[in-house]
Write a structure and sequence with these properties.
- The complex is a heterodimer of chains A (652) and B (134).
- Chain A is α+β, with helices and mostly antiparallel strands and 652 residues long.
- Chain A has 20 helices and eleven strands.
- Chain A folds into four domains: 1-165, no CATH class; 176-399, no CATH class; 400-508 and 612-620, no CATH class; 511-611, no CATH class.
- In chain A, the strands form two sheets. In chain A, strands 3, 4, 5, 6, 7 and 8 form a six-stranded antiparallel beta sheet that branches. Chain A has a four-stranded antiparallel beta sheet with strand order 2-11-10-9, covered by helices on one side.
- In chain A, strand 10 and strand 11 form a beta hairpin.
- With 134 residues, chain B is α+β, with helices and mostly antiparallel strands.
- Chain B has one domain: OB fold (Dihydrolipoamide Acetyltransferase, E2P) (Beta Barrel).
- Helix content of chain B is 31%, strand content 31%.
- Chain B has helices at residues 2-22, 29-33, 119-133; strands at residues 23-27, 42-48, 54-55, 62-67, 72-77, 90-97, 103-109.
- Chain B has a five-stranded mixed barrel.
- The longest helix of chain B has 21 residues, at 2-22.
- Classes of the chains: A alpha+beta (652), B alpha+beta (134).
- At the A-B interface, helix 14, strand 1, helix 15, strand 2 and strand 8 of A face helix 1, strand 1 and helix 3 of B.
């Protein structure tokens, strides 16, 4: 009964989404305040019904209701309770329901947080969100219903994919989706502004905090995914340029461009049409990502679910949403007037360069991701695009982009005397170059030109980002920093830290596969690896072969690593659980392979220097966003006129 | 204007070259046997023949045979095989042909669902069956 209840709730949510997507928009066009007033209650009601539907699905999992097809496919009575709940998004249908639920939360937050904005504007924003929601709920109900019954019911479930039975899998998809789906909000603001015909500084100011929150969740979600792939997939890599990774990375690049473009529009009233286009592009790439992930058009390590009819439906939604927004843009963009100009050396100019480079980077990733599809559609064969393409082509715009951050953040608005800028930045530039050239030789005995260059740029950005906070904290001169400025410095410092970690971990990565018998000692990567043997261990729903490996540096025992190969009881394919000895300077990563006969086992060893910095840097970027969004000017804007709805933006 | 145009042309050319060098084409065992496969790196896919997996005891060196049920290609590999690699299942291998006509693998691609057949392999099997029926 409960699953039918959930399905009914989802259908009612669709009805409310349709109301929310029509009446307020028509009301805004005709000046009917009573029609516009429908937007908020409809959004609230939709949220309630979506929450009921989502709760019903989680309940079906927790109560082992194997008469529900989706539950029977993705759960099992022996599955730990924790994973039963999170199995709700362990497959396609549940993922789509999560998508819908996340959008409902965003919509509710926008409804609560937009009371200070003119009704005509906020009801258009909610109207656009209603249309998006209606499209996706219809998609779920028509092609991907998680509540479909299985008759007769299964005696027990097929179990959750063992790869997903991991704490990382609990937080990665929801975090990613909050970011991904959150791109619908700046999209809705942009479309509403186009409809209203007023793309002004206020619009940028309203859009910006939402964009920052969505961006920081996207940053966090991608980082969690990368970390999960690193320790769970058992290959020791952290980024594979896999189509599914790319499909979350492209919206991130666009959202990053959008954040910076919004800063210019808010402050100076220029770049308006560009900002609108970026908002549309960021959301379109989110939808394209959903298409690539969910339609099964890609061969991917992530390809768990696939169905071509679903792909057509999502492509249709993409055409309607993006095509509609672009048509509206084409009709209205002529009315956009810049409210000022700027000189060649100015913050605006640097932010423009940021945007251009980010768009190029997105284009490079998009081309590499779609090339296999295009080539196949043209009948030219089946290809895949290897990581070397992405590594090379992405670095070309990314290196100058990161280098320019260090300059741009110190440039003033409108114009800046070039010599003053140079004087300020000379110190960190010289220091970064000196360390960048020397450090690789001191610590690793060798360096390529590219490594030296990348390390220097990373250090340069990190040092440059510290200039303002240092001036304030250590020398106590200059104006106090706003939260926005602290957030910016923190995030840019994070870019430097990330890049340092990524460069060093890739350039000085040691990797080797080898065969070992119990008692063997292998010297590799500056360590001694002693293989003590294999024993059998038992988990709640799996059995595993577990190796015991001593990690030694000369006579000193650094740690004991216990990598496993697990065999889960229901889905019997073996699963690698790598063991990692970690500190700030390096990770030693060991994965157990398979028995090779003759009592030997295959082992896979990776030593990755400074790889922790990669995740710390990404975390700092997200933290910077969090600090920036608590800036006074956004809090005031939200709270002032409507104390009743004191929903701070950051709570979204 | 001319500078911008030159820049775009150069960027386009570089992109084209980078793509060109890093595209990995897929070939089925029948195509390889027919001599259609290139000398450079490509992807080979098919079913791993039952009983063909041979291992040099105590080492990482393995050999196995990949087939589309019409033609077969021997494969050599010396790294850790992915978890889901097994005889009788589909596999995609990145590597190149050596002078003896063996395919030397750099990477065997893992697939995640035991019922999941790489789409290219499914199509290769289908094509081989169709070609044989003619």
């Amino acid at each position: 009964m409960i699953p039918e209840f959930g399905q009914l709730a989802l259908a009612l949510a669709l009805c409310l989404a349709l109301v929310q997507g029509t009446l307020p928009l028509v009301g805004a066009a005709r000046g009917r305040a009573d029609w516009m007033a429908v937007a908020r209650p409809a959004a609230a009601g939709q949220f309630v019904f979506v929450a009921i539907a989502f709760g019903a699905l989680v309940y079906a999992f927790l109560s082992d209701d194997f008469s529900v097809l989706f539950v029977a496919q993705h759960s099992n009575s022996a599955l730990p309770v924790f994973y039963k709940a999170t199995a709700a998004w362990g497959g396609h249908e549940g993922s789509m329901l999560l998508w819908i639920a996340v959008l409902a939360v965003w919509t509710l937050a926008v409804a609560a947080g937009s009371r200070s904005q003119p009704q005509e504007f906020s009801s258009r924003v909610l109207g656009v969100l209603g249309i998006v929601s209606a499209g996706v709920i219809a998609f779920a109900l028509l092609t991907s219903n998680p509540f479909t019954r299985l008759i007769p019911a299964a005696a027990d479930g097929n179990d959750l994919n063992p790869l997903l039975q991991d704490p990382g899998m609990i937080f990665h998809p929801p975090t990613l989706y909050v970011g991904y789906v959150g791109m619908a909000v700046p999209f809705a603001f942009a479309v509403a502004a186009l409809l209203t015909g007023r793309l002004d500084k206020n619009w940028a100011k309203w859009t910006r905090p939402w964009t920052v929150v969505a961006w920081l969740f996207l940053t966090g979600g991608i980082t969690l995914g990368s970390w999960w792939a690193y320790y769970e997939l058992g290959w020791g890599g952290w980024w594979f340029w896999d189509p599914v990774e790319n499909s979350s990375f492209m919206p991130w690049l666009m959202a990053t461009a959008l954040l910076h473009s919004l800063a210019v529009t808010e402050r100076r009233g220029i770049f308006k049409s560009w900002t609108v286009l970026l908002a549309i592009a960021a959301f379109s790439l989110s939808l394209l990502g959903t298409f690539l992930t969910r339609a099964g058009v890609m061969i991917s390590v992530h390809a768990f679910a696939s169905d071509p009819t679903r792909g057509l439906f999502i492509l249709g939604l993409l055409a309607i949403f993006s095509g509609g927004a672009l048509a509206l843009y084409a009709a209205r963009a002529r009315n956009l007037e810049a409210e000022g100009g700027f000189k060649l050396v100015s913050r605006e100019a640097f932010l423009l360069a940021n945007n251009v480079l980010l768009v190029i980077a997105t284009g490079v990733v998009l081309l590499g991701t779609l090339a296999p599809l295009i080539v196949e559609a043209l009948g030219l064969g089946k290809i895949s695009v290897g990581p070397p393409y992405f590594n090379l082509m992405f670095l070309l715009p990314a290196l100058p982009l990161v280098a320019l951050i260090g300059v741009g953040m110190h440039a003033g608005w409108r114009m800046m005397p070039g010599d003053a800028l140079a004087r300020r930045l000379r110190g960190p530039a010289v220091a970064a170059l000196a360390i960048g050239v020397a450090a690789p030789f001191v610590f690793f005995d060798s360096a390529s030109v590219l490594t030296t260059f990348a390390v220097s740029i990373a250090l340069w950005v990190a040092l440059s980002s510290l200039l303002d906070p240092m001036r304030r904290l250590v020398f106590r001169t200059g104006a106090p920093l706003t939260r926005g400025q602290i957030g910016m410095s923190l995030a840019h410092f994070g870019v430097g830290v990330f890049m340092l970690g990524a460069t060093v971990a890739s350039a000085y990565n040691f990797e080797r596969d080898f065969a070992a018998r119990p008692g063997d000692t292998i010297e590799a990567g500056g360590y001694e690896i002693v293989f003590n043997g294999i024993r059998s261990v038992e988990g709640p729903n799996f059995v595993a072969d577990e190796a015991e490996i001593e990690l030694r540096d000369g006579d000193e025992l650094i740690g004991i690593l216990r990598p496993q190969v697990r065999t889960y009881r229901v889905q019997t394919e073996p699963m690698t659980e790598a063991a990692i000895d970690t500190n700030m300077l390096r990770d030693v990563f060991v994965a157990l392979g398979e028995p090779l006969g003759d009592n030997a086992w295959s082992l896979r060893l990776r030593v990755k220097p400074l790889i922790r910095l990669l995740w710390i840097g990404a975390g700092l970027m997200a933290l910077g966003g969090l600090v920036a969004v608590t800036d006074k000017r956004y809090r005031v804007a939200v709270r002032q006129p409507a104390p009743a709805a004191a929903q701070p933006v950051e709570a979204a | 204007m001319a500078v911008v145009l030159a820049g775009i042309t150069l960027a386009g050319y570089l992109t084209y070259r980078a793509l060109q060098e890093n595209l990995l084409y897929f070939f089925s065992p029948s195509q390889v046997v027919a001599g259609e496969a290139p000398q450079r790196t490509f992807r080979l896919g098919g079913m791993v023949v039952e009983g063909s997996l041979k291992r040099e005891p105590g080492t990482l060196n393995v050999s196995f045979v990949v087939t589309d049920n019409v033609h077969s290609v021997p494969v050599k590999y010396d790294r850790v095989l992915p978890n889901l690699f097994r005889e009788g299942a589909g596999a995609v291998i990145i590597g190149r042909l050596n002078d003896e006509g063996e395919f030397v693998g750099d990477e065997v691609i893992a697939k995640h669902d035991e019922n999941y057949m790489p789409p290219e392999v499914a199509e290769a099997l289908e094509n081989a069956r169709a070609a044989q029926g003619e």
